Each structure stands twice: as structure tokens, then as C-alpha cells.
Amino acid sequence: MNNNLEPNKIVETIHRLHKRIGERFPDAGLGSVCQQLHTIATENQRLRSWIRKPHIMFRVGMSFAVIFFFLVFVAGIGVSVKFSFQEIDFADFLQVLDAGINIIILLSAALFFLVTAETRRKRNRAMIAIHQLRALAHVIDMHQLTKDPEGVFSDKNRTPSSPRQTMNAFELTRYLDYCAEMLSLVGKVAALYAQDFDDSMLLGAVNDVENLTTGLSRKIWQKIVIIYRFKQK
Length: 233
What we know:
By secondary structure, the chain is mostly helical. About 80% of the residues lie in helices and about 0% in strands. The protein has helices spanning about 5-25, 30-50, 55-85, 90-115, 115-145, 150-155, 170-195, 200-230.
């Protein structure tokens, strides 16, 4: 039993949703937003492949940098040992000891920075993609923002600046449902990054996107419930 999300099926689902939107609302801008999501999901597979594979040349470069810092450290120790043969008092010894401890701390920090450089590089690329998905979720929310269920059933409270309603109850329900589906798919594409890359910062960003899309979908389903209640009156 496979407990992981399958990227190909997610891309296929987005493609099918794009066709459904185009067939029912050929002139709606929501279709172009879904096409953009499809492009991002397709790019997601290439980026995830880039993240999963080891970056050999990058690691070789970092290894040379680690060796360089190690040699510098050894040279520094050698200089300290050379001077240690001279007669020094206790105060001078404490100063040398303090300087040695500072060198070790700085060297340790430099080594940690170099060793984790590949992980940070991959994380940064994934975070850029996550931010793109977050922005797309807000764009989807903007498309449903002016879709007022009450305006479908009554025009008496409209003002000259009220959004123009061109859909009947069924069409509006389908439109809102497409928005909710797209938001759910945004969350699934984001979750793919955390599936193959174990990083706490990235996982937090993915959770933020999923919480955002869940909250936005909840608002959409409230509108759908209102439509059903109006239809039952």
C-alpha cells in the first residue's frame, strides 16, 4: 500500500480540472489560474527531482573548503605551539587559551555552515516554490470574493457598485466548487515538497499553505451552503 502522494496523479487531476473549467466557463479567468497551477505542478516534479538527488560537484567544492579551513586551523595551532616554547606567565597563558577557544568556536561555526550549505540551498529553492503557491491561493480567493450567493436570488438590495451577477445558482455552485478544488490541489502540491525533503522550516511553510487553503475553502463552502438553503426556500 502506497501512503505517499503521487505527483503524476496530482498533475493529471489539475489538468482535468482545467478542462472542466474551460468547458463550463470558457471565458472565465479562473481557467488561466488553473493553467498556472498546472504549470507549477509540472515544474514541481523537476524541482523535487533536483532536491532529491545529491549535488556531487557542490559537495566536492564544500569538501575542499572544509579542508582549507582545517589546514588554516592546523597552521594556527602550529604557530601557537611554536610560541608556547617561550616562557610566558599565567596571564599570557590565559590570553592564548581564550584566543584558542575563540578560534575553535569560529572554525566550528564555519564547518557547520559549509556542511549544511547543500541543505540550505535546496531549502531555499523549495521555499520559493512554496511562496509561489501561497500567492496563487490568494489569487484563487480573489476570483471567488465577489461571488455573492444572495445576489443570485434577489436584486432588491443591489447598489450601483454591487458586483454584476451573471450566473444562476447551479453555475455559481460549480464555480465555487472549482475554486475549492483548486485550493485543495494547491495544498497537495505544497505537501509534495515535504514528502521527500525532511526539513523543519520547509515543513512549517507547507503547513502554513495547507492551513491557508483550508481556511479559504471553508469560506467557499459557507457560500455553497447558503445557495442550497436559498434553493430550499
